[in-house]
Request: fold
Amino acid sequence: MMKIKQITDFKIGDKEFFSKTVSESDVYLYAGITGDLAPHHVNADYAKGTRFKERIAHGLLIAGIMSSALTKLVAPGAVTLAHEMHFLAPVYFGDTVYAEVEVKEIDMEKRTLLLRTIVRNQRGVVVLDGTALEKFPKAA
Amino acid sequence: MMKIKQITDFKIGDKEFFSKTVSESDVYLYAGITGDLAPHHVNADYAKGTRFKERIAHGLLIAGIMSSALTKLVAPGAVTLAHEMHFLAPVYFGDTVYAEVEVKEIDMEKRTLLLRTIVRNQRGVVVLDGTALEKFPKAA
Reply:
C-alpha cells in the first residue's frame, strides 16, 4: 500500500533533493541501455583532445538523476508531461551531483505543477538548469 | 582515429535514426542508475491502478534512446547544450521506439544546430516530441 499524492498536497516553494556520485559504471551502463556511445562519453583517448580533457557523463543521465528528486517530491501520483533543460557545465566521472527541485507554479485547473530543476556539482557549479511539468490524474 | 564532424558538414533537413525495443531490464537498470524508482516504472501492482494499467518506461530514458540518433548524426564533434521535450504517450515494456532527429536550423556564427527530435512507437504514435541544441567547438 502507498499514499498517492494529490495536487492539493503541494504549495509553491516545496522542495526535494537527491545527490549521487556519478561513476564510470553509471555512464557505461547508461550508454549501453540507450545506445548513446558518443566518444566524449566512452572514449578517454578521444576525450583528451576535446575541451573537456576527460570523458563526461551524458547530460540526459544527469537529468535522470535530477528526476530522482522529482520522484521523491511528486510520486506516486504525478507523471511528467514535459522537460526543458540547459546543460551548463560538464559532469566528470567521480563528480558528485546535487539535484534540487522546487514547485514554482501550481495550476489547479489543469492539475499541473511547474518545477524548477537545478543540479550542481560538488563545487556548487550549476551543471543543469531547467523546468519540469508534472500532471496529476483526477482524484479517484 | 576518427573523423571529427564540423558544423559545415551539415545542411537543413539532414536526418538520422535509431530504434530499439524497450525491455524491462532497460527500465530497471536505468532506474537503478538514476535512482528514479517511481512506482509507475517499477511496481506492476501499483501500475494496475493507474490510467496506464502497466509499468511504463521513464520519459528521460526514451529521450536517451533518442540521443542515440543524435549521436549518430553529430558526434564526434558536437555536444548538447539544451533539450526541450514533451512526453505525449506512454512507452510500455516491449514497445519498439523509432527515434528520428532532423536539422531544422543552422547558426554558423554560434556554431549551433537546432534539431527536431521525434520518437514514435511501433504503431506510429508519437511518444516524444522535442528539440535539441547542439554546439560545435571552433575548428582546430
Remarks:
- The first strand of chain B starts at residue 15 and ends at 21.
- The CA atoms of residues 89 and 127 of chain B lie 5 Å apart.
